[in-house]
């Protein structure tokens, strides 16, 4: 009898532990409508600010979408990409992030939210919602953004090099880094489609145009890049040009459409990482499917993959904090 009672007590304690763990605030999960009671107008406020910004500066859509990627791939989607460092050692100071733009837009959104709901909406959630809203404003499909992220307390520039996808990445690196975040090969090729909007500095692909093999020959170009496209790019980007901007999806760089896959299928992807999608059977099949069917599934697929990416390494419950100002910890 005593042994049975002891066994029952042990099971009861285990049950209580599991219940406390599952329902504790530390183990809280993201969900759609997280702010429905604490700040019900949050997403409407974000949309209003973003619509106003893009009416004046439509070119910011691409950079603001890219910001969510760069946030999530380093330390998870915790707003760490927004933090400043007095010693210039934060993520935003690292070379891969030095061309990011739109921080002032995130600050503007945060200020509007603070006026409506003081200390409620995290900067990490703002970045995620903004990414969705700039996509929709660029004629992409809407998806429901899960919210409930909290803001991280650490931002380290060195972590960008081993986590972000560089424009000269090969397919092995791309897949490895996506899988390290719990994302699939399909997610990799779908999310690469974000290159349908925005521009790039010549410095991100100039190595494909000049001295590609490193032999000191300027006419030595990447053979995987369409030759006519190579010549067109050389007109816009001279050797050593670091600052000129080129449309990533020529002709529709402000419209979130499926044209990107048509370009990649014709060897006209701007980056080596775009061209690399033809080096894997799964990613190549997806590129060719979207090119042949005018993106029959891409717009829907993109929203699903963005939701998955938005779950990477999140802080929830009582972890992290809700920053008062997005560029510095409280």
Question: Could you characterize the architecture of this molecule?
Answer:
- Residues 29-330 form the Plant heme peroxidase family profile domain.
- Pfam families: peroxidase.
- It comes from Hevea brasiliensis.
- With 330 residues, the chain is mainly alpha-helical.
- The chain has 13 helices and four strands.
- The protein has helices spanning 2-23, 42-56, 61-72, 103-116, 123-137, 171-180, 185-191, 206-209, 227-236, 259-265, 272-275, 281-292, 298-309; strands spanning 31-32, 146-147, 199-201, 245-247.
- The strands form two sheets. A two-stranded antiparallel ribbon has the order 1-2. A two-stranded antiparallel sheet has the order 3-4.
- Helix 2 (42-56) runs antiparallel to helix 4, helix 3 (61-72) crosses helix 5 (123-137) and helix 7 crosses helix 12.
Overall pLDDT level: 92
Using the CA coordinates, give the radius of gyration: 22 Å
The low-confidence parts are 1-9, 15-27
The total count of helices amounts to: 13
Q: What's the assembly state of these chains?
A: single chain
N-to-C order of helices and strands: HEHHHHEHHEHHEHHHH
Percent of residues in helices: 40-55%
Provide the spatial order of strands within the biggest beta sheet. 1-2
Q: Characterize the largest beta sheet: strand count, sense, and whether it forms a barrel.
A: 2 strands, antiparallel
Shape: globular
Q: What gap, in angstroms, lies between the N and C termini?
A: 56 Å
